[in-house]
Amino acid sequence: DIVLTQSPGTLSLSPGEGATLSCRASQSISSNYLAWYQHKPGQAPKLLIYAASTRATGIPDRFSGSGSGTDFTLTISRLEPEDFAVYYCQQYGSSPEWTFGQGTKVEIK
Amino acid sequence: EVQVVESGGGLVQPGGSLKLSCAASGFTFSGSAMHWVRQASGKGLEWVGRIRSKANGYATAYAASVKGRFTISRDDSKNTAYLQMNSLKTEDTAVYYCSRQGLGRGVDYWGQGTLVTVSS
Fold first, then answer.
1. For residues A28 and A69, is the Cβ–Cβ distance under 8 A?
2. The three-state (H, E, C) secondary structure of chain B, written as one string
3. pLDDT in tens, B66-101
4. Long-range own/partner contacts, residues A40-43 (CB < 8 A, 24 or more apart)
5. Helix (H, G, I), strand (E, B) or coil at A47
6. Rounded to an integer, what distance in angstroms lies between the CA atom of residue A83 and that of residue B34?
7. Contact state of A35 with B104 under an 8 Å Cβ cutoff
8. Which of residues 43-72 of A touch B (CB under 8 A)?
9. At A28, phi and psi to the nearest 5?
10. CA triplet A36, A104, B116: central angle to 5 degrees?
């Protein structure tokens, strides 16, 4: 199974600052099938990025994804108040089992 | 509008069984793979399993932690997927989410989740 390791565990930032979240895979992800999700308490997770770098429908352009192979990054250019949440990466290129990273919490400093 | 709605959660004793339902609308359910993901309190998201479409033989796959105990099925005539959970353990306590697999996109639509509590 592919293990995804996210870093850091927590990011303490202020609104307006930029955020860089990392996701490292234990082996290369086929077709760069790596997604990023935002999850807030009591809500359904939201798909932000798929195929490593493609924004999902309706996602603001301050969110961007990059990377390939085993190293991937989610960048939030300028944090808005609604962006404080937990972010997960997920690989869906290895069949049949999919896996999530352990999450990065972006909190208000 | 796409909607995914889970139901059937509740309190069950260790060793017991529970069946969750996932009613979907607003997209071609019969052509979509459906996934179950869970989140225990204070923990991260954990992929539970999935069922593919009829065109893909209704193939199922499960996480190692639930294999042999959980079964995913679907009824395309009712636009509904199911998660049958047997031999439940306290560590199965979690919010269970149903979600749709997008084409090459991971899971793109999620329900709000249903809480399953396994406790004596």
1. yes
2. CCEEEEECCEEECCCCCEEEEEEEECCCHHHCCEEEEEECCCCCEEEEEEECCHHHCCCEEECCCCCCCEEEEEEHHHCEEEEEECCCCHHHCEEEEEEEECCCCCEEEECCCEEEEECC
3. 999 999 999 999 999 999 999 999 999 999 999 999
4. A40/A85, A40/A86, A43/B112
5. strand
6. 27
7. no
8. 43-47, 50-51, 54, 56
9. -60, 135
10. 80
A97 reaches B (C-beta below 8 A): yes
| Token couple for B81 | 């997927």
CA nearest A43 in B: which residue? B112
pLDDT of residue A95: 74
Residues A62/A78, Cβ–Cβ less than 8 Å: yes
Integer Cα distance of A1 and B22 in angstroms: 27
What is the helix, strand, coil percentage profile of chain A, to 5? Answer: 5, 50, 45
Residues in contact with A33: Cβ distance below 8 Å, sequence separation at least 6, in sequence order: A50, A51, A52, A91, A92, A93, B104, B106
Tokens standing for residue B50:
């999935």
